[in-house]
Specification:
The protein is an alpha+beta fold. The chain has four helices and six strands; from the N terminus they run βαββαββααβ. The protein has a six-stranded mixed sheet, covered by helices on one side.
């Protein structure tokens, strides 16, 4: 992807499964799922980063939308869980573009104009969205500054 205009998104992991039906993932396992799953896509680069909140950096060609990249991430995680176990969770990919000044000079921190994406594994996606007050959170945001991808475990 050298010399190609690109977007950047950082992924965090919100594992909201408390009944033991799915195993939690280490930072390395989480990053490995996406590194492996995205490896064949020439328009995307992926790596584990060293940051307390963010786990994975994804650089993507500008002709891909953040929603497209997020959707691909959701399907990669769902496929991994399907191969690893018969138990599945709802997967939410909740993205927002950073519009405020950076909170850290750390090169692995989220910068203005970049996408912060929370990858959520939860028992009931709609319940999780209600618990974080998603509708109110996004109400004042423009449609091109946020995205949501939702995969139900009954897929």
């Amino acid at each position: 992807m050298a010399n190609i205009a690109q977007g950047r998104m950082l992924l965090s992991h919100n594992f909201d499964i408390t009944d033991g039906s799915l195993s939690a993932l280490s930072r390395e396992e989480f990053a490995g799922i996406f590194s492996t799953g995205l490896a064949s896509n020439q328009q995307i680069q992926c790596r584990l980063i060293n940051h307390p909140h963010w786990i994975v950096e994804i650089l993507f060609a500008s002709d891909l939308s953040p929603t497209e990249v997020g959707s691909e991430c959701a399907h990669i995680l769902a496929q991994h869980r399907l191969q690893a176990t018969e138990n599945r969770a709802d997967i939410l990919i909740l993205g927002g573009i950073k519009t405020t000044p950076p909170t850290s000079p750390d090169p692995d921190a989220l910068q203005p104009g970049e996408w912060g994406v929370d990858v959520v594994e939860t028992a009931i996606g709609e319940q999780f969205l209600t618990s974080i007050n998603w509708d109110a959170t996004i109400a004042q945001k423009s449609a091109d500054s946020i995205f949501k991808v939702q995969l139900s475990s009954d897929r």
